[in-house]
Amino acid sequence: MPNSGRIAKLRTVAKLGAHSVLRVAAYRIGLKTGLHPVQRLKARPIDGKFFAPAANSQAGATGEAARSLHYFGWREVPVTGQAPDWFANPFTGATAQPAMRPWWTIPDFAEATGDIKILWEPSRFQWCLDLALAARTDGDAAETLERWLQDWHAKNPAYQGPNWKCGQEASLRVMHLAMATLLISGGTEPSPALRASLFNHLQRIAPTMGYAVGQDNNHGTSEAAALFIGGSWLAQAGVAEANRWQRMGRRWLENRVSRLIAPDGSFSQYSLNYHRMVLDTLCMVEIWRGRLGLPEFSAAYLARARAATRWLREMIDPASGDGPNVGANDGAHIFDIGRTPYRDFRPTVQTAAILFENARAYPGDGAWNRRAEALRLALPDTVLAPAASAQFDDGGFSVVRSGAAMAMLRYPRFRYRPSQCDALHVDLWLGGDNLLGDAGTYSYNSGEEWLAYFGGTASHNTIQFDGRDQMPRIGRFLLGEWLKSDDVAFDPDGAQAGYTDGQGASHKRSIALHADRLVVTDTISGFAGSAVLRWRLRKGEWRSDGPHGVTDGAHRLTVAADAAAGPLALGAGWRSLLYLNKEETPVVSCELTGPAVITTIYSWA
């Protein structure tokens, strides 16, 4: 690595914060030397059934409980045997039995089945929720739930194999088991088998909490939530260590929410999907706390939870539940009851509004009420006002609305590490139709080419200078030379922001949203050779409409510049709305060779 690269990396590591860096370093050194306490755990044996049959459960009932696994919201895999193959890769057809060796000896991205996330997905126990709900009356669902849990524990002995590698994955199992318990009977008394499983999981999570905290992301919130839920659960059963775990979970939940959720509700990962994940986590914690009658969290914690609820509500389209595909998207969809569409964020918003605002975000009946109804939460009479224009300056988001249209301007406010080069990206929506969109993420482990493509500047509706990314990639999940915004302004009809990158290139962008069009004005300078403006269009039959415009027959995009600019080029790119799923999408671009003011108009009838 050249000296300039080393310096950039050192600067970036410094921005991560000494406490975070030291926590992660201590964890890795401990594992490497064999001195970490997590390497000396003794598991409790699993014996007996996890759940007693529900009072109204009938053998041979024909309920509609899930008998299949869903991967990343789009790939359904029927389970034809007694239990799933926990180590299969449905995307390649490969099935491998990973060595049952200590989890800390297993690499993240070198399993025989490929991306370790594929192995982890069914082992998050998301399927427990629908099976548990059906098991209230369906004896077959109850038997399926029990059989799958028994098989998973037999095939995944505690602390052995890939499904014990990540504390967050263990935490998601704890949270889903807790919600499944409430769904089956509403009670909270764990069976001996469930107590042993919970004990083994919390033993795994607690010693590596420092590493989770050092990530400054959803690992810390998930693992703290599991310690709080599981600890309070086992405390009721008289387990000696449980009160310590419960106190640890509560303390770190308060800490993580205060640190990672900004006063305006922005989350540290700058991602719509990860924002949903942390909000779902807080919802499960609050449901569990209320059911056990435990003391409330602090007023500051609840204020941040309300702010995070508002952030997601203002960001999505109320008609479809979808929203900008902004930031990293790894396919996570926890706390889903009834298998709502992956990109429908309304169930999370509705549940969070009920719990933290004592109001509904959406009126009437719909899938957004399914969680509340399944968990017997009362639906408040109060309905929140519809989503409106809003600025979330702590995270770098401006949302402008006009009738059914919404535009989002993304600008850099990086207190935490960014994951994508999306500075001054614009998303445009008309109802549930994403007219100008983000390429997404696709995969964390499909090669450097795809990692660079989907996370790079060229995959966003912004300007790329001199063929390089806005920030250099210095690691799989780490970018250097974090950008800073200037000239930030906002009003209900428009927004603006700008930045100057590490090589002196400057970009200022303003947006104005009208009932029938979006106007974007870009001012650029300071680059060495060329600048390329790109717009990622909705799918359709787009064609040239003169040298400076394109149309699909109903919508039109035009670009005009006050300096020499090449003609619009209409081509194709990729977008990924779901993890490990990508499709072609039309992309229009324009190259400029010097400083310019550029006006883009996207209009519709």
Question: What does this 3D model show about the protein?
Answer:
This protein is α+β, with helices and mostly antiparallel strands and 605 residues long. The chain is built from 15 helices and 21 strands. An eight-stranded antiparallel sheet has the order 11-12-13-14-21-18-17-16, with no helix packed on it. β12 and β13 (506-513) form a beta hairpin. The longest helix has 21 residues, at 272-292. The termini are far apart.
Instruction: Using the CA coordinates, give the radius of gyration.
Output: 25 Å
The CATH architecture of the domain at 390-604 is Distorted Sandwich
Helices, by number, come to 15
How far apart the termini lie comes to 53 Å
Ordered list of secondary-structure elements with their pairings:
Elements (H helix, E strand, L loop, with lengths): L2 H14 L1 H16 L34 E4 L3 E4 L37 H5 L6 H8 L4 H17 L11 H18 L7 H14 L3 H6 L3 H19 L5 H19 L11 H21 L6 H17 L30 H12 L12 H5 L15 E3 L4 E6 L2 E6 L15 E5 L2 E4 L11 H8 L7 E3 L7 E3 L2 E2 L5 E7 L2 E7 L5 E8 L3 E9 L5 E6 L6 E2 L4 E3 L3 E7 L7 E10 L2 E12 L3 E9 L1
Helix pairs in contact: 1-2, 4-5, 4-6, 6-7, 6-9, 7-9, 9-10, 9-11, 11-12, 11-13, 12-13
